[in-house]
Design goal:
Blueprint: E1 2-3, E2 8-9, E3 11-18, E4 24-25, H1 26-32, H2 39-44, E5 48-49, H3 57-72, E6 81-85, H4 97-104, E7 112-116, H5 122-135, E8 141-148, H6 160-163, E9 169-176, E10 184-192, E11 200-201, H7 218-221, E12 225-226, H8 228-250, E13 259-262, H9 267-276, H10 288-291, H11 298-308, E14 317-324, E15 328-335
Parallel strand pairs: 6-7, 6-8, 13-14
Antiparallel strand pairs: 1-10, 2-10, 3-9, 4-5, 8-9, 10-15, 11-12, 14-15
Helix pairs in contact: 3-4
């Protein structure tokens, strides 16, 4: 599915991110799991990540939402649409967005709220969807929140190299309708490759298993599993051409891009992105070594950090990219 037509006006009115607690070094995890020093950083490339030990998913969501609203110069009462864009929600039912909105103090009946889950590319999916709803006049301001406790259910016993990739955190963005013509989505694309559906999964939490039939196996069913080699092979085969198609739809050359904001899958994955695609390596934002893989919070966190650091600003051309479990590809070419 792609959006190839007219420029879709939308503006990032405010954005914020939050990393809980202090950085957790890979050496600390080596010691905790009885591994030789340097093992996990060598396997993953991740030096540090953050764990939400004193905050839950809704706590972090509220923190970033309030900061994003402040940055936008708005109050919660100005928001007409709340989207929770997370790979893993707070619980299976109900959705997470209304709980975030309640924490922010939004009044009953004054807004719409729902969840979007395309795992690691959920923020981009929500951004695209919100822009269409704002453009249709369904709201004037939308709040997108990606808050992830990625460290729940990690396979430390069976696959510590996978477990050590992940970190917790949150980011939020306030999107506003824009009439200036200076800000918006130049092109958007999503593609699905379900041949890789089993390569990245948590089996429990849906209707697939009746947990009453598996009383002694709940921990295994609720643990994350990933076949990294299979995912890498599929991505390597198809993702470079996906990027080229997205740039063509936007009418951009690689040198037109001010910054590439990719999903922070791993430092190794980002190095491959730089080597195997037409993207300028010096314009790829790489924070994976310091924050790990934060699922859907990765892209908005790096976008927020890049704006805060002055690397991009109003008018910059930003290419957001990612891959997701399922397997899916997503991308947005945005003039922020």
């Amino acid at each position: 599915m792609d959006q190839t037509g007219a420029f879709l006006p939308v503006r990032i009115a405010g954005i914020a991110h939050h990393l809980p607690g202090s950085p957790i070094a890979s050496d600390q995890l080596d010691r905790a799991h009885g591994l030789p020093a340097g093992t996990l950083q060598g396997q993953t490339g991740v030096a540090t990540r953050h764990y939400a030990t004193d905050e839950d998913q809704i706590d972090m969501a509220a923190v970033v939402a309030e900061r994003a609203l402040t940055a936008a110069g708005l109050s919660a009462a100005d928001i007409g649409l709340v989207i929770s864009a997370c790979g893993i929600g707070y619980q299976a039912l109900p959705s997470t967005a209304p709980l975030i909105a309640r924490r922010l103090g939004l009044a009953d009946g004054s807004f719409a709220a729902f969840d979007v889950n395309t795992t690691c590319i959920s923020f981009m999916t929500a951004f695209d969807l919100a822009a269409h709803l704002l453009g249709a006049g369904r709201a004037r301001h939308a709040l997108i929140v990606s808050s992830e406790v990625a460290t729940r259910g990690l396979p430390w016993d069976s696959d510590p190299a996978v477990a050590a990739l992940f970190g917790d955190g949150a980011a939020a963005a306030v999107l506003s309708a824009d009439d200036s013509g200076d800000h918006g989505i130049c092109a958007a694309a999503m593609e699905a490759y379900p041949s890789g559906w089993e390569a990245c999964q948590i089996e429990a939490g849906g209707t697939r298993h009746d947990l009453r039939d598996h009383p002694g196996n709940i921990r295994d069913l609720a643990s994350f599993r990933m076949d990294g080699k299979r995912l890498f092979a599929l991505t390597l085969r198809h993702f470079p051409a996906f990027i080229t198609r997205l740039l063509n739809r936007a009418g951009w050359n690689p040198d037109d891009i001010d910054l590439v904001v990719p999903h922070q899958a791993s430092p190794h994955a980002l190095r491959h992105l730089a080597r195997r695609t037409i993207l300028p390596p010096d314009r790829i934002a790489d924070h994976a070594g310091q924050i790990g893989n934060m699922i859907a919070a990765s892209v908005p966190t790096v976008l927020s950090k890049s704006i805060a650091e002055g690397r991009i600003g109003p008018g910059s051309r930003v290419l957001m990219l990612g891959t997701s479990a399922g397997v899916g590809f997503g991308g947005l070419a945005v003039r922020i």
